[in-house]
Every structure is written in C-alpha cells, then in structure tokens.
Amino acid sequence: MPLSKLLSNNATDQEREKNKDYRNVVTIQIIIVISGLVLTTFTNYEEPAFKDKLIITLFSGFAAFYAFLLWDLLKDFTTNRKLIGIVLVVLSIITIVGLLGEFPFYKVLKIENRREYLFALHASLFPIEVMVIGFAIRDLFSGNVFTSSKLWGAAAVYLMIGISFASLYDLLNIAAPGVLGVDLTLGIESYAECIYYSFAILGGLDNAYQDPAPLLRNLAVIEAVWGNLYAILIIGKLLGLPTKNE
Question: The whole model's pTM is what?
C-alpha cells in the first residue's frame, strides 16, 4: 500500500477518534449540567435520605467519568507521553479520593478538614480543565476543512468554559464561603449552584445571586465576555471553512 494512502487512512482514523471523543465529552457535559441544575434541586444535603444519597452518588459518578473523558480527549491533541501520564495520575487521584471522601452511604475516608480537602481537589482539577480547553481551541482553529469533529468540538469547548468557570467559582466559595452572597453546603450543593451561576452568566441570563463578592462578580464579567468572544470567533471560523467535498 502506498505511503500516501497509509497516511491518509491514519489521518481519517484519528479524525474519527477525535469526533467520537468530542461527542462523548459533550454528552457527559450535558448530563452534568442537567443533573446539576435539575436533580440537585430535589436534594436535601443537611439530612440526606436514600434518594438524596443516590442523587449525590450519581452526580459524583458523572463528574468522575467526565474527568476520564477529558484525559481521553487530551490524547487526541498531544503525543507527549509524560504529560498524558501525569494528567492520568492526577485525575486518578482526584477521582478516587473524591469518590471515597464524598461517598454518602458510607464514610470510607475520614476527612479532618473538609474545606482543605475540597480545595485541593478543585485546585488540582481546574488547571487540567484549562489546559484541555487550550488544546481544544488550538485544534478547532487549525486546519482548513470543515469536519463534524469541529462542530462537536465547538460545542464541547463552549460547555467546558461554563463547567470550568463553575469549578473556579466553587474553588473561591470553598476558600471563602459565602462569596456568592449566601451560605451553601460545601461539596455537591456548592458545585451545583456554581454550575447554575456559571451558565446563567454564560447565557446572559438573570440569576438568583445578585450580591456576589467583587472578585466573583469580576470573574463573571470575564466569563461573559470570553464566552461571547469565543462564540463569535468559532462561528466565523466554521462558516468560512469549506467541506471536504468542496
């Protein structure tokens, strides 16, 4: 088989894999956002019954699966084995420690200082989210042909922006409880409310938190501007690309 055909087949396989990975990420992102906005509103965090514990477990499981999919997506962007290995180790530690520490049915891990524990988890995850967003944006704005992976990738990055800012807001709420203007139970409740706040800002909607701390308010402005700028740039980029048939 000619070398050119081998390279073409390899590129096609890589494109299919990337398209699948983007699609998987978007699917779990939608599940996380919907469960964070809907399911958690029916959850009693102070005195959780079986139903509440089940919702918390499901939400934690979705978040853990999302972490794995981010790592899987990262492999489409770089061949740096050291970076891929480090990210896998960090995400594995975050996932295992997070699931064991937050498992509502049994206290597997005894956490002495929950604030420090949650802060460490989010502080470790947030840079990875930002890194994957950076790689994905570079991928979307490279190439001169419109493909389905770019469409799925555009959606994935937009949702990543909302979720990553939610992580940042939750990180700040852990460091200084009450930055949203109300007291929230640290953990799933705080994160779910930060998801609501982040996507309300990203979507240009009014939200229930009208008195956030100045830092949070300013970060929300950055998120809104960045989200709108990204939408304008990616739409312009995708509309200007020819399809393979052209």
Answer: 0.88
- Tell me if 44 sits within 8 A of 52, measured CB to CB: yes
Residue 5: per-residue pLDDT: 46
Cβ contacts of 2 within 8 Å, gap of 6 or more: none
Which of 173, 77, 81, 164 lies closest to 128 in space, CA to CA?
164
Burial (Cβ within 10 Å: 0-12, 13-18, ≥19) of residue 123: middle
| Residues facing 243 on adjacent strands | 146
Identify the H or E element spanning 205: none
The whole-chain average pLDDT of the chain stands at: 87
For 85-119, write each residue's pLDDT tens digit.
Answer: 999 999 999 999 988 888 888 777 788 888 899 99
Tell me phi and psi for residue 159, to 5 degrees.
Answer: -70, -35
Helical axes 81-102 vs 114-140, angle rounded to 10°: 140
Domain boundaries, the chain: 3-239
CA 138 from centroid of its chain's CA atoms:
17
46-73 pLDDT, tens digit each: 788 888 888 888 888 999 999 999 999 9
Q: Between residues 242 and 151, which one has the greater pLDDT?
A: 151
Q: Are 224 and 204 in contact (CB under 8 A)?
A: yes
Yes or no: say if 90 and 132 are a contact pair by the CB < 8 Å rule: no
| CA-based nearest residue to 203, from 217, 219, 218, 223 | 223
